[in-house]
Amino acid sequence: MQTFNLTATGHNLNYLPQYIARRHGFFQEQGLELVTKIPTPWDGVLDALAAGEADMALGGIWVPSMYRERVENYTVFAQIANRCPLALLKHGSADEFKLTDVAGKTVLMKSGGGASVGLFFKMLLRENNIDARAVDYIQDLDGVMLGNLFQGGMGDFFVTDNLSARAMVEQNPNISVAMEMVTQGDVPWSVYYRETATTTPEVMDKQRRFCLALAKGIDFVNNTDPTTYQDELAELFPNVPVEACVAVTNQFRNNGMWISPVIPVEGYNRWQLGLRDARLVSEPIPYKTLVNSEPALESQAPQPVSSSGAPAMNGSTRIAVAEAKTISSVA
User: Fold this and answer.
1) 2-83+187-329, which class in CATH?
2) Which of 157, 187, 280, 303 is most enclosed, with most CB atoms within 10 A?
């Protein structure tokens, strides 16, 4: 059994297939013992990589994007979350809410785990022809602090993770969910990466086996009613009502949060445009420059077959794999 050390930026429901894969022995089936550490503050993941204490980091792709050719080159080899796991809360009823309603208002956004919250929300505004500068933001505070302040009356809207949003709404009838951003299209939200210079064939073999186990975890979550393993959800997220965990898991399952370890090209390109417009990169980074999809692609072949004899791969996964194979085949 080989130890595979992971340093992660947090403990989140959008990482659920990885947790399931570990709890159900899928990594052990691949000869890997997954050991996870979550540093505080979150950017300690980069220190862990640099010190050789971790084989890979899990977090936002915006970090290896903005670091490239400036500080350190990282190679991204897989994803776990294919969509944004945030929600937009508002005071009062969310009936007839439109995204344009945020213009001229104050939006609270947690930032303790990095820049992703603000990056995605402002990109979403731009994509909907809403001037992001027409909104006032309070985003330099801890998420729990902002949540308490929002419930106390600060601001008009609050962007936080979907699970916390559901839990807050269940406890406070004066707040409602205006938008669950998992419905707002593909982006490689959470990815695995390490330094390009230290990625050897031996490392890639571990990555391939990791992706095989992760793909099995994704398949389990997508095809299993979460009420049948709600005890595990309660153990993983003890501070949130299990009903909220089940509801958010189903919301994620139904909206393409988890499709494959393979990063879809279209979602990648969309996020790169968002990072460019946020000035984190000067120009979008080509897919193949930042992503080596070989370990993730190998995890998709051969595919298990369904009862009809067809490959057990949904449409989104087929598209993601086909796109990534096309990019990988280009010299």
Assistant:
1) alpha beta
2) 187
How many CB atoms within 10 Å of residue 316? Answer: 16
- In residues, how long is the chain? 331
Q: What percent of the chain is helix, strand and coil (3-state, nearest 5)?
A: 45, 20, 35
Out of 3.40.50.300, 3.10.450.50, 3.40.190.10, 3.50.50.60, select the CATH number for domain 86-183: 3.40.190.10
Per the structure block, which two tokens stand in for 124? 């979403």
- 8 Å CB contact between 106 and 157: yes
Joined together, the tokens standing for residue 188 give: 């490689």
Q: What is the pLDDT of residues 2-51, one digit of tens each?
A: 999 999 999 999 999 999 999 999 999 999 999 999 999 899 999 999 99
Domain parsing of the chain, residue ranges? 2-83+187-329, 86-183
Whether the CB-CB separation of 136 and 107 falls below 8 Å is answered with yes
Q: pLDDT (tens digit, 9 = 90+) per residue, 101-155? A: 999 999 999 876 689 999 999 999 999 999 999 999 998 888 889 999 999 999 9
78 φ, ψ to 5°? -165, 165
Whose CA is closest to 326, among 283, 299, 269, 288? 288
